[in-house]
Each structure stands twice: as structure tokens, then as C-alpha cells.
Amino acid sequence: MSRTPSRTAAEIATQPASWRRAAEAAAGFEGLPKPGERVAVTGCGTSWFMALGYAALREAAGLGETDAFASSEFPVGRAAAGSYDRVVAITRSGTTTEVLDLLAAVRGLVPTTALTADPGTPVRDAADALAVLDWADEESVVQTRFATTALAFLRAGLGEVPGVKSVAEAAVDAELALTEPLEEAVLAAEQWTFLGRGWAYGLALEAALKMREAAGAWTEAYPALEYRHGPIAITAPGRATWVFGALPEGLAADVARVGGTLVSRAGLDPLADLVRAQRLAVALAESRGLDPDRPRNLTRSVILTP
Q: How many Cβ atoms sit within 10 Å of the Cβ of residue 285?
């Protein structure tokens, strides 16, 4: 008997179309950072990892210094000192306490732009400019579609980035990532280490988080060249090392030497490769009898009370 797809799986499947729509929306949005601005990007959890990806992409495009911070760790003193020309905040729910507190703290000090899925929430009045990606909103607690759509929106606003595919090309890759089978050795692994360089490092962090959230899996994530500086000790037969983007020279031999399973799709856009990791998280959750739509201990938004 076939299993009814989870809501998360259905949302994952809509990402190519959602990214294309994001690229169209970015072309007409006035609140994106301008070339030369010094920008800080922020969010919590998954949104923070997307901020890391965007910051690296923007600098790679030569458009200006760009820092990324978890909202709870944002250096407000820098904004007060005029170090930033704009703060960009990502919040699916529009209600996350740390994001709203940060926007309030920098109000009047630096222009702010927020990306959200729900314009009828407090973030509407907290930011100077608001990008509403409501078509990418989700019913699932676990973020998949909104996060990648937010990054696609910001990425499209950068124009051409050397060595990086366009959002349209990434969407084509994502269609492939949705259909190709996941490797049996990866599905059967007991542990997964995700690696990436540059903007792909944020995606590695996100892949590991998805696996922990949806399936309670044992996952790690590191910059790819840090793998040899300790994390390789965890790799062994029955464990997988998944590399987003280009495979660093010699890393495949290192993984083979210690008996691990290497996962590398260097020709696939890293954002599309994240789609494959999302699918793995859902498959693993279901194989363990877990509900990927409603993971234990998690809620759609973190709202802190005094």
C-alpha cells in the first residue's frame, strides 16, 4: 500500500516553481541592498543559515561587505556606530522574538528589510521594507520551501555571481533533485556529516539541522576544509560524508581511507542538492515512525515570554 506523502514532502516538491516566482518578485522589489552597501543579514535557526549563504554570495558577487548573525547574537553596537548601511532579517512567521527585538533595537539607526511569509504579523511594522513571500509559506513546522525561496529571492537580487548558477538554472537542477533516487547507502547510514565551502557552508548547516529536526538523526556540519581537522574522526563504515558544491581535492580519498560513504554532486547547484537532503530527512523520519510535519519539541515560531 502506498503511503500518503507528508505535508513536508509536498512542500519540498514545489520548490522549483517557488524559486522561479521569487526571482520574478526580486526584480521588482526596492528594498534589497544596493551595491556598495555594508549589510548585515540575520535570522534564527534555518533563517540564520540562509543568511550565511546570502552573505557569502553577496561578497562573492563583489557587491559589498556582508555579515551574517544569529539574531540573538547580533552586535547592535555596530549598527549604533554606523557600521552597517542596511540590516536584512529573515523570519517565516514574522513573530520570532529575537528577530523582532533586534529590529526594534536598530530602528532609526539603520534601514531594515525583512522577508516573511505572513504580512499580518508584527514584523510588518518592525521593518522599514517588507518582502512578502506568502506563496512559499508552509503548514509544516519544519522549514523547507520558505527558507530556500527566501535565499532564491535574495540571490536573484544579486544578478550574476561568478561561478554560481542563476536561480533559473538552480530551479532546473532542483527538478532533477526531486526525481532521482537517493542512494541506498545514504538512506541506510547511521550518521551523516555535511560539508560545504563559501555559501554552501550555510546549506551544509541547514541540511544537518533538517535531519535532526525531522528525524532526530545524528548529524554534523562543517566548512569542507575543516573536515580533516578533527571531524574526519567520526567517519567510518556505515556513515556518510555529504559535500555541497565542489569537492575539495583529496577529500574523496580521505573519506574512502576511513571507510565512509561519500556523497558528492559537484555539478548540481548546492541549493538543489539541499532539496535532496530534505528528501533524505523526510525518508529517514518516516522509516523511524516519526512525523516529519510535526517534530517533537518544536513549534512553528519561537516566541519568548518574560
A: 25
Question: For the purposes of burial, counting CB atoms within 10 Å of the CB of 10, is it exposed (0-12), middle (13-18) or buried (19 or more)?
Answer: middle
Does this model's pTM top 0.90? My answer is: yes
Enter the C-alpha cell of residue 88.
536584512
Same domain, 53 and 177: no
- Residue 210's nearest CA partner among 296, 283, 143, 291 is 143
- The DSSP secondary-structure symbol of 229 reads T
Give yes or no: residues 69 and 206 share one domain: no
Is the separation of the CB atoms in 25 and 153 below 8 Å? Answer: yes
Q: Which amino acid is at 194?
A: F
What CA–CA distance (Å, rounded) separates 132 from 120?
10
* Contact partners, residue 165, CB within 8 Å, separation at least 6: 173, 269
Which among 114, 107, 37, 101 has a CA at the least distance from the CA of 79? 107
The number of CA neighbours under 13 Å toward the Cβ of 267 is 2
Query: What are the tens digits of pLDDT across the range 155-187?
Result: 999 999 999 999 999 999 999 999 999 999 999
User: Is-contact 87 111, C-beta < 8 A?
Assistant: yes
DSSP state of 47: H
pLDDT tens for 83-116 read 999 999 999 999 999 999 999 999 999 999 999 9
pLDDT tens readout for residues 128-156:
999 999 999 998 888 899 999 999 999 99
Query: What's the domain count of the chain?
Result: 2
One domain, residues 81 and 16: yes
Distance CA 114, CA 123 (A): 7
Sequence letter at residue 82: G
